[in-house]
Design goal:
By secondary structure, this protein is an all-alpha fold. It has one domain. It is 43% helix and 0% strand. The chain has 4 helices and no strands.
Length: 92
């Protein structure tokens, strides 16, 4: 029913990957231009001001929320890349 394991035959491979060893990704021209356009119209400041009432004060405890500008940029990428859910956006 139970078999004994041969511990010498099983060796675990390295689990941790140093981020400096990963290949560097470059942003496409489209996303660079989009970011420049959003910066030029003050997108981040405007979104933060609109969303300010929905965010709790840090002094009340809990984890800080995602920056609203980052969150909306993630949603835009999901739309442009045709990603079906927020989870698939975050995993990218």
């Amino acid at each position: 029913m139970f078999e004994t394991r041969n511990a010498a035959a099983e060796t675990q491979q390295e689990f941790w990957i140093d981020a400096r060893r990963l290949p560097k990704a470059t942003a496409s021209t489209f996303y660079r231009k989009l970011d420049e356009t959003l910066d030029s119209i003050g997108f981040a400041e405007g979104v933060r001001e609109i969303c300010r009432p929905a965010y709790a004060e840090m002094s009340r405890g809990g984890r800080p929320g995602i920056d609203p500008a980052v969150y909306f940029k993630m949603l835009m990428i999901g739309f442009f890349e045709n990603l079906p859910s927020e989870r698939s956006i975050a995993s990218r």
